[in-house]
Amino acid sequence: MFTIYGIGSKFLKSAFYHTLSMAYEGKNMPSMFSTTDPEEHKALKRPVAQKFSMRSIRTLEYLVDPCSQIFTDAMLEMQGQVVDLGTWVQWYAFDVIGAISFARRFGFMEERKDIKGMISGIEFGLVYVGRVGQVPHLHPFLLGNLTLRRIFAKLVPVSRDPIATSTKMVLEGIKEYDAQEADTAHRRDFLAYLRQQQKSTGTTMNKADRDGKLSPVVQYSESLELEYLELCIKEAMRMHPGVSYPLERIVPEGGVELCGVHLPAGTIVGMNAAVIHRNYEIFGPDADKFRPGRWFCPEEQAKNMDRHLLTFGAGARTCIGKNISIMEVGKFVPQILRQFDLEWASTEPEWKVKTYWFAKQSGLLVRFTPRSAASRQGT
């Protein structure tokens, strides 16, 4: 794993990632994520890396709090009704990104819909990437072809083109941001497994609430004190990583020997997070089970498990949005578990997951019931 993904690794991203580039002003534009050139990646990352540090992200927490409040208010309004939690969590995540990027939510939760088809468009894009990425030489003849993109743009109204729509929304956000006065107080901005009813989590939450350790909108610093809940979140991310395809890399010049097998230069290799995370040698003989207690172990064992988590990738190409996600989940989960009891509401015993490179869940249907003051106080 560290040979392929470690800091300083010579294993570069494969052509699979070219399918993730976007067109902008008539040109194909590699992003920090899609570029396969390490020098270009450094140049793109250098100006913004500090803004994505956890220290910097936490200064933007005040922009996330209204998103949590909007979500909980909506669930109070819809108490007892069947709610597609997967959809609502996605709306929440998008609104958080809008809030911390432009100090303005996109409005998914307030309008309670997929605004201008952005999310469905992204899903289409993931289907495309998942399929065409396996034969990336086809991409220049499909959506990688700028002529075809221009024809597509003429045939499809901007309001129905998710790529054009999302680009337009981002540009509008930047313009609106630049038009604001230079008020430093406002110029800083740049669920997995909720079904698990762990008694220890509830007890911890109740005690923290009873002791006055939780603000009306849970703060990230407060969630860090809920040790067992933190382990539940880590365990959920282990069992349900967002990326479900191998993270492809190319064997460098001279070839390499991996697991006793010599692979020549140019061979595409990769590791699948979902497979690595269920490796018995690393995570124990019950690696297929959701057991947060596995993280209560000797320090070296815990560090070894941590080193093998690929939830956000690894090495120099670790997802730059990692800290945003960690703060989102750290605030969102305790807020929900503190205020509501969740009941499975589907006629199916489990939700479904499809793989479009990213794993996409569906059928995550639940009912929210507000917790009484007595139950929150543990009486």
Automatic annotation (TrEMBL):
It comes from the Eukaryota. InterPro entries: Cyt_P450, Cyt_P450_CS, Cyt_P450_E_grp-I, Cyt_P450_sf, Cytochrome_P450_monoxygenase. Belongs to the cytochrome P450 family. Heme binds at C319. Its cofactor is heme. GO terms for molecular function: heme binding; iron ion binding; monooxygenase activity; oxidoreductase activity, acting on paired donors, with incorporation or reduction of molecular oxygen. The lineage of its organism: Eukaryota, Fungi, Dikarya, Ascomycota, Pezizomycotina. Keywords: Heme, Iron, Metal-binding, Monooxygenase, Oxidoreductase. This is Cytochrome p450 oxidoreductase.
